Each structure stands twice: as structure tokens, then as C-alpha cells.
Amino acid sequence: MFRFYTSGESHGKGIFAFVEGVPAGLKVNLANINSELARRQGGYGRSSRQKLETDEAVVLSGVRHGITSGAPITLLVNNRESENWTCVMSTNEVDMTNKDVIAQMEAKAIKRFRPGHADLSGTIKFHQRDIRDVLERSSARETAVRVAAGALCQQLLSSLGIQSTAHVLQIGDIKIKKESQNISIDEIDKLAQAADLLCIDNDAAEEMKTLINKTWQEGDTLGGAVEIIVEGLPVGLGSYTQWDLKLDGKLAQAIMSVQAVKAVEMGDGINSSVKPGSLCHDAIFPDENSSLPFKRKTNHAGGLEGGMTNGERLVVRAYMKPLPTLRNGLESLSFPEFTEETGHYERSDVCAVSACAVVCKAMVNIILTSTLLDKFGGDSIVDLENAVKQYREYCRTIANNSHSKKSKTKIGK
Asked: pTM for this structure?
């Protein structure tokens, strides 16, 4: 059974991911994992923290000599800044009679709620005495180790011929004009990585940078939209038999769990709601020249029908709200007095849409890995590869097998 969860705080010693169910025998490329972490830290409009520390993953268990053993895998991304937070984030009791300790604790205490964050609800829910207890865990810093786990899953998917990429569609009200549907996944990845914003449209990217600069000067923040694309998925991942087995539902939950994401879309989901059915569904045609006995000329469904993959390119879009930590601060309340105040400001990004693209791709890879292992199982990567290969062969020859059975029936009669 595949399972994944995280632990750690924003300014604690590190962020951890625990990944269970990865088959034995998968070669782990740590450089590729760290490359994904670097992508998450990049992007125009990020905060100064990205310059203070370079994220690198450390594998603590489940891998031996660079190869997975089948045991649970523990990944760590250290917080190098934690050296300056030893008192504030200590896991042991601190001496509150020490003047230096008191001064450090007071300096880092958060006494004003930030509208749009988990601050207010989390403080009330967990009976906290310091809003920092909420901020530290709810912070998007946690996504660093999601990216590390997602990069590990991406390596498993790649071994099965499955590719994924992500890019920025929109920042603020500026949208790209270049359509991704007719561009290969390799070219999308190449164009995105060549830009500061993971944007495949250079003209739009320059407009986005100008808008980010203007917004920073105004003390405000920006949101946007990203697109995740996956190719090479077998037909039939997911299921229609129960609500919680539907792949689109699992993907939606995973994407919505990413901090600041407020909406998710599969294929042409939003536009489909205002069009007639004849313009929203993907007609099916016979095909004798591909890996499947059928083909589509369109992909409005984004590769998902009835909660399952249908053999087409998977297309998932995420919509990110502007970050709620504003330099100017919104009207808010103090804590614990609940009197009028402005929201607390703690170093934050002006725009983190490019980072959101990397994180959302990681979550898609994690869900696809889980769903794929549910279907094909396999204690070792060899078992998994053989099972997937056999299934792909079945899908490729299903039409021929059907014709053969019909012919035999006629002869028998």
C-alpha cells in the first residue's frame, strides 16, 4: 500500500516526508530530486529566504546504495535558518527566567492575525497561546518536502514511460497566448525551464515581470494559474465504482491541499460548463497505427473520463490566490485581546505562482504513483514494469483479440 505524509515546521530543524510502498529496485537519482527543489525555489517575485538557503534532500531510510529497498523511505529537507531560531523553535522547555530567552521569544511572537491564513481558525481550534504555533506548520515551507517526494515518484513513473511537466498559464490578469495542446511535453519542459517564471510564452513572461515589480512597490501580492501535463499513462487508472476511487477526485483533493490554491480544473472543465455537449466531448475513432486501437482528435476531457484515465494527455490546472501576507497589512485583530490591528507581516513572496506549478506537479506525480500501484501492485520494480508492460500489450491488441473471437464464433456456427 502506498502512503505519503509530511512532518516539520517552517523554522524548525527540517521538513520530513515519509513515503511507504515504493517498490524495491528503483534507482534513485538524488540530483534530479534536488533539481526539482531548485525549481521550486526559483521564479521571479520570490522572497529573500530563497537566497538564504539552497534546499537539498537527504535520504534517511529506505534506500541503500542508491536503490530503493522496499522499506519506508524518509526524506529530509533541512532548514538552515533554524540555527537562528534555536530558542523559539526548541522542542525542549526553555528557561523563561533568562532575559535573552525572553527577548528572543518576544521578538518572534505573533500577536496579530493575518487574514487569508490559517492563523485565526488554527489558533482557536488548537487552543494555542501563540499564533506562531499555527504559522510554523501551515506555512508553504512544507511544500519543499512534497516536491522531494513528488520527484521520487516522478522517477518511478519515468521508468514506466510516463512523463510530466508543469508551466505557468497566468499571473494576475496576464495570460499566455501560446497554446500548450499542440506542443510536445519535452518542448514545454524546455521552454518553461528557460524562463524565470516557468512560462512558455516569452512576451507574456516579460509583462508578468513588470506587473510583479509594480505590485511589489505597492506592497501587494499576486496569484495566477498553472497547468500540469502528463503523458504515457495507461488507460483505466482510477475507477468509476466508488466516489473515493475516482482519479479526478483524488487529483482535485491533492491539488487543493497545496497552500493558496483555491480552484482546480481537469481539461476544459470551466469552459465546458458554458458549451453544448457536441463541443465538449471527445469523439473516438479507430486507429491501427498507435499503441491503442483508438484515437481522439480532441482532448476536452483532459485525459479523464468517468474517474479514469482514457489514454490521452492528462491536463490539470490549478488556480492560486494572491498570497495573504501583505507588506501593508489588511485590517485584522490582535491576539489574545481581539482588538483592532493590521495583519502581521513576516517575510513573504510577492508572487509564488511558478513555485506552485512545481508543487502541483509533485502532488500529481504522488497521486498517479499511488493509483498506479493500486492497480498493478508489485513488491519490486521488475514486477511492476512487467505488469504494466503486459497490460499495455493487452490494450494494444484488444481490438485484434475481439475480431479473432468473432471469427472463431462464426466458424463454429
From this structure: 0.94
